[in-house]
Structures are given as structure tokens and as C-alpha cells.
Structure to design on (715 residues):
């Protein structure tokens, strides 16, 4: 599939993949696709940052290459590495066969045969389906020096391997970076990207998401679930539930054959929504009942 | 450099306006260079100029890089891209509002946005002859800056307070690391035989280069206990600005910064200090703490802290910054006992007292006499300079500030 022609088009394309995107997210996605700029998504956990990369890859029929960042991630595991054992075997074989010509060996040992391609380099290679979608997930977990390494890859879409030379992407990949903001990413990296803060959706949009993602939920249940989560986000919690938690919770409730919320049901399944003991202790019982009653009265009779 | 040079001259007015908008954003504190302006014009060309909403999100995608900039951006966008006549009215409405002496309330993203639009080359036709100078430029003479640095918070005018807040936002509180017995991988240092061998095993027994380690550093936590009673009003607000700056600064050492306020009761405002926008952080903290400008019961509040929080936030040898004037109405014996408890569980207790700025200060109040023996260091905390000096005092491990002087006064009395 070709790139979308406009913002409406982008929104429709994402919606066709069951991803309900706000106008803002559609705009920034469209710009990123059109201008060939990396897309930098920041926001709370569980608001659909990673999901958009998967959706884009599926919608455009491109390969998805995922680089999960973690502390201590280095170029050897992000871009490329040399296959040391294969190189050693090649040397031993050459020695045994008596054909160990140093120059030949050197040229062969540091050639494409012994290169292990990691996600960044894979993304620079030509793909049959067109430039791939490169997802650099949770970039805030990687160390700061790694950001500097990303700069070359993301601004010129090239990777320099000292032994081989510079490898350029024939067509730039679609790059999506996500961050949970456990630390601030350097401005030099952000400057090369289009920025978007992914917020919690409002009631109408969260309903839409729930309908798209959990089609089995009865209307009344979906409304109550959404309104309950929305009300929960307004309280002072250590970790507010994300959209992913809403979807999980709705699925849990369906598995329990629920058609509407009840205080006991909420207390029993709160673990799907809140992941900290402090939060659960605070909401469980009276507080949950209070929120549920408020939700009921705001939604009107079933 | 004019941002529009290498762009097609299709909508020259629009490009110009985007550049002006970018300048207004820059004045409001968003880091925007000419490169971004070019990006913005390209992005608007790509996205089209049909719907106001799309235009908003297009510029947003290019200009905003941090969540705390969102509100300032939204306000400025609303002010800038509106009917120009409306803007004139707004200006007319804003100037008398700015002229009023009292500071803007702490929900101030809007104030900052208006300030960015109004400050600078604003047409002078509705300028008022007796309009006071509101903005204090950062490029003020050194002597003014020096005066504000040493001036007592309680004696500042609003403009001086604003300037002091700006200076405080730039302050840091560096802390020396604590040496530990553990070791961490490093490029240079002692050879780590175990890891060297493990690496060699992975490569078929080939020793490549030795792995090395160096001693691991650990950073202490900072716990701030700030008095917000009536006698401390101004100072405590400035101190919270300082705490926010310290909590936000990365890479200066502190592992974690915990903040509590107390007056008649203890409130944990650590979570609110995490908001990047200082106005938003203080507003949230203010809403949480219900006892602003009330009385003080230091002993009770320290008791609450020792019982509920001490073990949770002070386990790792934290440094405690106690900000209070020590004017307590409670029982001195109880205060002394709780202060001793606090002292015993902290690595160091530093008492910042704004009253110490007075020349004839003597430890006469009961609260001060009870607290003084149980702190490691007794320092002034009434001006920007004294907060700045705090970092130096932390670096000298044995620094006691003015404690020995006042302890000897106590003995003589």
C-alpha cells in the first residue's frame, strides 16, 4: 500500500487496522510519513505508543523491525557485530588447508559473510515490501551515549562500519521512537524528530478504542468500564491506568461473563487495572463503590 | 538569517508569520532555532492550511519537544493565531492586569504566554506613560544581580522576587558521591579476572582484552522538610522553588529528592515536585498541603515524619534539609526528642534558618534551643546567595555552619 495522501487518509488507514487515532496523532503521523522524519512519541505507559508502529507496518504492508532499548545497549547489539566464532573457524580451516594467505583472509574475514546484522542495520537494507518500519522502543532506557549513536543513523539513515565503510539506506525507513519519560532525551535527538505527547484519550475516543479492540463487550459494560477508568484517572493514583489496562480489564470482565459492573466484580478484578499495592488498597472497597455510583448516575439508567 | 530564504515563495506572509510565532515561542522559553522554523514551514506545506486544528497539530509536532511546553504552546497559539483586533483588545485587557502589584497566581502558563507576546517589540500605541517597568531583563547590570542575590526574600519587591526565582531555577546543589565497596565495570581500573575469563570463554578461549573495574559511587538521597507556617511564607515559597530546581536537575548527584511540607501537619509533596513546570508543581503542592501560613507544631510534624516516612525515605543514608525558623509553640522536650530521632537516622541534618540573616540573632526561642544541638550544620537560608552557598557547605563534610557559634552562646546564657 502506498503512503496516505492526507491527514484524513491517515486517520482512515489507522482506523482500518482497529487503531483509533486522534486528529493530532494522525497529523503528526502523516507529517512523519510525508517528510521522512522520525516520529518521537512520548507518554505514559499503555497509551498505544508501541502499537502505532505495529499498526503502521500492517497498514502499509511493510516489515516491522523492533529495537527494544535497555540499559547497557551498545552498537554491537543494536547495529552490527562480527561473528567471531565463524571467523575463528574460517581461520583454523584455512590454516589446516594450508591456504592461509593473510591478505585474502583479512578481506574475507571482515566481509559481509561474517557480519551479523542487528535491527538498525537491518532497517537500512533494502526490503522487498519497501522501506521497513523501524521501532526503537523505550529509548529512555538506553544509556545517553547510545542516543549519540542514534543521531547518525536517524539524521542521515546510514551506519558506518569501520572495516566495511558506510552503509546507506537506499530509501529511508519509517522510524518511530517511543519513550516513557523515565529520563529526558537529549534535545539533539528530539530536534531531528517530530514530537508528539500521547495523552490518555477522552471518554468518546476510549469508547471507540474499546469497541474496536474488544468487540465482544456489551454496550453497557463498555460504557461503564470506560467511565470508571476515566474517573479513576482523575483520582490521585501512583500509576494511572492506561488504555492497555482498560482493554485488559474489559477482556477480563468478558471472560467472567459480566454484562455490567458491580462493586464485588470491581474489587475482584482491580488487579487488571491497578498494578501498585498502594493504589489498590486505596481504591478497593468504599472508594470503588463511590466511583461506581458516580459513574452509574452520570450514565443514566441502563 | 531569514528562515524563508530557501523556500518557495508561495505563501510569503504565512512563512513570515510562522517565523514571528516561533520568535514568540522562543521568548516564552521554548528552545527553537532557525532550523525548526524551516521544518515548520515545510510541515505546513505538506499538511495543508485548511483546518485550524490541523494547523495547530502541525506546528505542535515541530515546535514542542517536552510535555511541559504543551500548555505554553497552546496558549501562545491561541493568542497569536487569532483575529488581530481581538489581540489588541486582549493586550488592552492584560496591561492593567499586569500593572497590579500582586504577583500572578501560580497557574501561570497563560501569564508566561502573554508575557512572551507582549514583551519585546509590541506596538507602543496603547503604552501607558506611567506604566511601570515589569520585565527585568536577564542582561541587567551585574550590580543589580548581585544586590538581588544577597537581598533578603522578605524585603524583595515582586519584580525582584521574579528575578530571584529565575536565578534560583538555575541554581544547582552538587553533592559529593559516597564511596562503596562494590565495583562497577570501567574502561580503566583494576583488572576483573572473573569477567575476563567469562568473555574469553564466549570466544573459544581467546583472551582479548582484560575487563576492568573501578569502585562504584553511590549518591545520597535528599530529604527536604520545609516549614510553611505564617512566619515563613515568602521564604518557604522560594525554598520550594529551589527544591523544584534541585529535583528537576539531572546529573548533579542526588539519587532521589523527597520533599515534605509542615505547618500544623506533615504533607508529602514529592510527587508534585516531579511536574516539570515549576508553577504547576507549586500549585499542586499548594493544593495538597492544607496548612499554608498557619501555625507551627514542629515537634508533632517531626514525630509524624519519623513514624511514617523516616524508614521509607531515609534508609540509604539520606541528607536532611530542615527549613524552618524554629519558632515552635509545642513542647520543647518533645521537639528535642523527635529532632534527636531524626538526627540519628539521617546521614546529615542541615538546618536552614532564614532568621540567621539578622546580625543580632541569638538562639533564644525555645524551639531553636531544642533543635540546635541535634543538627549537624546550621546555615542561613534567606537569599539566593545563601542557597547557592549551600552546595559548598555540603561539599565540606565537617561543615557546621554557624552551629558552634550559637551553641557557645547557648552555653553562656
Amino acid at each position: 500500500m502506498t503512503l496516505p495522501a492526507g491527514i484524513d487518509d491517515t486517520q482512515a488507514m489507522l482506523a482500518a487496522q482497529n487503531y483509533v487515532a486522534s486528529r493530532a496523532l494522525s497529523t503528526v503521523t502523516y507529517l512523519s510519513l510525508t517528510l521522512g522524519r522520525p516520529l518521537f512519541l512520548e507518554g505514559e505507559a499503555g497509551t498505544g505508543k508501541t502499537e502505532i508502529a505495529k499498526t503502521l507496518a500492517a497498514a502499509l504492508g511493510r516489515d516491522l523491525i523492533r529495537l527494544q532499548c535497555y540499559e547497557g545497549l551498545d552498537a554491537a547489539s543494536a547495529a552490527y557485530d562480527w561473528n567471531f566464532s565463524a571467523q575463528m573457524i574460517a581461520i583454523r580451516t584455512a590454516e589446516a588447508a594450508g591456504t592461509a594467505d593473510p591478505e585474502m583472509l583479512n578481506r574475507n574475514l571482515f566481509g559481509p559473510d561474517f557480519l551479523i546484522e542487528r535491527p538498525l542495520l537491518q532497517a537500512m537494507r533494502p526490503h522487498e515490501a519497501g522501506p521497513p518500519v523501524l521501532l526503537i522502543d523505550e529509548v529512555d532506557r538506553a544509556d545517553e551515549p547510545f542516543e549519540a549513536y542514534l543521531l547518525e543513523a536517524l539524521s542521515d539513515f546510514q551506519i558506518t562500519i569501520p572495516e566495511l565503510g558506510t552503509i546507506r539506506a537506499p530509501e529511508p525507513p519509517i522510524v518511530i521512537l517511543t519513550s516513557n519519560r523515565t529520563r529526558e532525551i537529549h534535545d539533539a535527538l528530539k530536534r531531528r524528530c517530530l514530537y508528539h505527547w500521547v495523552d490518555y484519550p477522552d471518554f468518546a475516543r476510549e469508547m471507540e478504542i474499546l469497541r474496536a479492540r474488544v468487540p465482544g463487550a456489551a454496550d453497557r459494560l463498555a460504557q461503564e468500564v470506560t467511565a470508571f477508568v476515566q474517573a479513576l484517572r482523575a483520582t490521585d493514583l501512583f500509576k494511572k491506568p492506561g488504555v492497555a489496562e482498560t482493554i485488559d480489564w474489559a477482556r477480563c470482565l468478558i471472560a467472567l461473563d459480566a454484562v455490567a459492573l458491580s462493586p464485588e466484580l470491581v474489587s475482584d478484578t482491580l488487579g487488571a487495572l491497578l498494578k501498585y499495592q498502594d493504589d489498590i488498597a486505596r481504591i478497593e472497597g468504599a472508594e470503588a463503590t463511590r466511583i461506581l455510583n458516580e459513574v452509574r448516575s452520570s450514565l443514566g439508567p441502563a | 538569517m531569514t528562515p524563508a530564504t530557501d523556500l518557495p515563495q508561495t505563501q510569503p506572509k504565512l512563512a513570515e508569520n510562522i517565523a514571528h510565532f516561533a520568535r514568540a515561542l522562543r521568548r516564552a522559553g521554548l528552545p527553537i532555532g532557525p532550523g525548526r522554523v524551516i521544518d515548520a514551514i515545510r510541515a505546513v506545506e505538506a499538511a495543508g492550511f485548511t483546518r485550524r486544528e490541523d494547523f495547530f497539530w502541525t506546528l505542535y509536532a515541530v515546535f514542542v519537544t517536552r510535555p511541559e511546553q504543551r500548555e505554553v504552546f497552546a496558549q501562545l497559539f491561541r493568542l497569536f493565531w487569532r483575529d488581530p483586533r481581538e489581540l489588541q483588545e486582549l493586550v488592552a485587557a492584560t496591561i492593567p492586569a499586569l500593572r497590579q502589584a500582586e504577583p500572578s497566581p501560580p497557574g501561570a502558563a497563560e501569564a508566561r504566554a502573554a508575557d512572551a507576546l507582549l514583551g519585546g517589540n509590541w506596538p507602543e500605541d496603547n503604552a501607558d506613560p506611567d506604566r511601570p517597568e515589569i520585565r527585568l531583563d536577564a542582561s541587567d547590570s551585574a550590580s543589580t544581580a548581585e544586590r538581588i542575590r544577597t537581598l533578603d526574600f522578605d524585603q524583595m519587591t515582586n519584580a525582584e522576587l521574579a528575578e530571584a526565582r529565575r536565578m534560583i531555577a538555575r541554581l544547582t546543589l552538587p553533592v559529593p558521591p559516597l564511596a562503596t565497596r562494590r565495583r562497577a565495570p570501567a574502561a580503566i581500573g583494576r583488572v576483573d579476572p572473573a569477567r575476563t575469563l567469562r568473555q574469553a570463554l564466549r570466544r573459544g578461549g581467546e583472551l582479548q582484552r582484560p575487563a576492568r573495574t573501578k569502585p562504584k559511587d553511590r549518591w545520597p538521597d535528599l530529604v527536604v522538610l520545609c516549614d510553611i507556617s505564617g512566619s515563613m511564607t515568602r521564604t518557604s515559597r522560594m525554598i520550594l522553588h529551589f527544591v523544584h530546581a534541585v529535583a528537576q536537575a539531572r546529573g548533579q548527584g542526588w539519587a532521589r529528592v523527597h520533599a515534605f511540607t509542615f505547618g500544623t501537619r506533615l504533607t508529602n509533596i514529592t510527587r508534585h515536585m516531579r511536574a516539570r513546570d515549576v508553577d504547576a508543581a507549586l500549585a499542586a503542592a499548594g493544593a495538597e498541603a492544607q496548612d499554608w501560613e498557619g501555625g507551627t507544631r514542629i515537634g508533632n510534624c517531626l514525630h509524624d515524619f519519623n513514624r511514617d516516612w523516616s524508614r521509607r525515605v531515609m534508609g540509604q543514608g539520606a541528607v536532611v534539609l530542615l527549613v524552618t525558623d524554629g519558632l515552635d509553640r509545642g513542647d520543647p522536650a518533645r521537639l528535642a526528642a523527635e529532632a534527636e530521632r531524626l538526627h540519628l537516622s539521617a546521614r546529615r541534618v542541615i538546618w536552614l534558618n532564614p532568621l540567621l540573616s539578622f546580625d543580632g540573632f541569638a538562639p533564644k526561642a525555645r524551639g531553636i534551643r531544642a533543635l540546635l544541638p541535634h543538627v549537624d550544620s546550621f546555615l542561613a537560608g534567606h537569599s539566593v546567595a545563601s542557597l547557592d552557598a549551600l552546595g559548598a557547605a555540603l561539599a565540606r563534610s565537617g561543615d557546621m555552619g554557624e552551629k558552634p557559634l550559637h551553641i557557645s552562646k547557648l552555653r553562656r546564657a
